[in-house]
Amino acid sequence: MRYLPLGPSGVLVSELCLGTMTFGEGWGFGGIDTSTASQILGRALDAGVNFVDTADVYSEGKSEEILGAALRGLRDRVVLATKAFGRTGRGANDSGLSRYHLVRACEASLRRLGTDRIDLYQIHGFDPLTPLDETLAALDHLVQSGKVLSVGFCNLAAWQAAKALGISEARRLAKFVSAQMYYSLVGRDIEHEVVPLCLNENLAILPWSPLAGGFLTGKYRRGQEQHPEGSRFATSRFGEFPPVDKDRGFDVVDRLIAMAVERDTTPTTIAIKWLLTRPGVTSVIIGVRHPEQLSANLAATELQLPQSDLDELTELTNPPALYPQWMIQRQAANRVV
């Protein structure tokens, strides 16, 4: 297990992060109780994982409660991350990124997690009703109060993140240190603009759903009439999530399965290993429903995959360049010396 810097924070986190969206019942594909959560957490810690991620909306706060119980006596062994933005109640102000909501959401997360600090507090999305200045000032207040140590963002466009970094720099507020974004072999959209921004600003990239909701595990095959029972990709409350171009996606799955047979491993392990080699990626967020499922995820840290295999997967899944990227690349060629 490698340990890499969490952006400019000075904190080292394991290259795999244990995601806890499956803790609790509220999201339709979880069901993990405190006992099973403790087993999963224990196995992850024994394997060297020191980074754990949750959110206040997972199972309506139950994920944080279960994680908090599982962490009793183990709190200082992990870098603990959670998120705020989504709806946590029926009130008009029970969602969003206003100071009013963020301060209350942070205090509620601290109570559920049973801790006095959140090591990485992330905004879970973009709030069109709240100016970024207000959100960033609220986050800085939480940092100055000691309730939060570092801040990050999830699911922002590059221009939104860049604007936020500029505001924080100008006003001397706590700056984002990480970007938690969807990233997988069949979901490489962030390579257009978010990845270059993160590389330029030294932000840690934390991919969520590295297996595209389970699509890349090999359970989903071309021509299936029904999805595998209990599969996350098909049972999400959002429908098939995250979205996948299936025609192209099944080509990737076919190659992953063949490659796994050749290398005596699993499609899961290879898909995660590929992500671990991508520029800017610091820690890949893995989520499981059973302790046994951890093995294929953890094996990615030890898998020795030939560069030719990595190159083949990269070429197979390359997204088309969008404008102005293709124009920038073309014009940059004239500056090569």
Describe the 3D structure.
The longest helix has 18 residues. The protein has 337 residues and is of the alpha/beta class. An eight-stranded parallel β-sheet has the order 9-8-7-6-5-4-3-10. Strands 1-2 form a two-stranded antiparallel sheet. The mean pLDDT is 94. The protein starts with a strand and ends in a 5-residue tail after the last helix.
Secondary structure blueprint with pairings:
Blueprint: E1 3-5, E2 12-14, E3 16-19, H1 34-46, E4 51-53, H2 62-70, E5 79-84, H3 99-113, E6 118-123, H4 132-144, E7 148-154, H5 158-171, E8 176-182, H6 194-201, E9 204-208, H7 232-235, H8 246-263, H9 267-276, E10 284-286, H10 294-298, H11 307-316, H12 325-332
Parallel strand pairs: 3-4, 3-10, 4-5, 5-6, 6-7, 7-8, 8-9
Antiparallel strand pairs: 1-2
- Mean pLDDT equals 94
SSE run: EEEHEHEHEHEHEHEHHHEHHH
How many independent structural domains?
1
Extract low-pLDDT stretches.
none
Estimate the helix proportion, in percent. 25-40%
Largest sheet: 8 strands, parallel
Question: How far apart lie the N and C ends?
Answer: 39 Å
The secondary structure category is alpha/beta
CATH class, please?
Alpha Beta
Number of helices: 12
Name a few traits of the molecule:
337 residues, TIM Barrel, eight-stranded parallel β-sheet
Structure summarized in a few sentences:
The chain has twelve helices and ten strands.
